Amino acid sequence: MRYVPLLLFPFILYNAFAFLIFADSQTDFREARLFSLILPSGAMFVLTVSTTILLLALVLAAAEVVKAARIGVGSIVDHIFATALFVIALLEFLFVKQAATGTFLLLTLIALIDLVTGFAVSIRTASRDVVLAPPPAEG
C-alpha cells in the first residue's frame, strides 16, 4: 500500500461515479452539487462533484511530490506505478466514452505533472547524494 500512487484515488472516485453511482442516470454526475454557499460578495459558490475530485487530485499530487523526495528502491516502484497510472488514464481518456470529459482530461494532466515532477525531484535528490572521490594522487 505504501507504493500505491495517491492519485489513484481520484481516478477510482471518478470511475465509481461514472460507472456505478450515476451509470443509469440521465444526470451528469460532474455537475451534481455537493453544497452551495453565498459569499460576502453576494455571489453563489457551488461545489460540484467534479470540482471536489479535482481538488482532491491537486492535494494528493502535492503529497506525491513530497513522497518523491525519498531515496531508495521504493522511489523506483513509485515511478513505475505513476507511469502506469498515467498511461492507463491516457488510454481511458482516449478510448472510454465516460472519460472523454474536461474533468478526466485535467485528472490525466495532473497525473502527467506528478510523473514528470516525481522524476525531476528524484533525479535532483539523487544527484545531491552522489559523492565523487578525489582523483588519485600522482607520484
Major sheet summary line: 2 strands, antiparallel
- Helix segment tally: 4
3D shape: elongated
Write down the Rg: 20 Å
Structural class: mainly alpha
Q: End-to-end span in angstroms? A: 55 Å
Give the strand content: 5-15%
**How many domains make up the 3D coordinates?**
1
Strands of the largest sheet, in order across it? 1-2
Order of helices and strands: HEEHHH
- Please give the number of β-strands: 2
Mean pLDDT: 86
Fraction of residues in helices?
55-70%
Low-confidence stretches: none
Question: What does it look like?
Answer:
This protein has 139 residues and is mainly alpha-helical. It has one domain (8-128). It is built from 4 helices and 2 strands. The chain has helices spanning 8-21, 49-68, 73-95, 102-129; strands at residues 33-38, 44-48. Strands 1-2 form a two-stranded antiparallel sheet. The longest helix has 28 residues, at 102-129. 22% of the residues are buried.
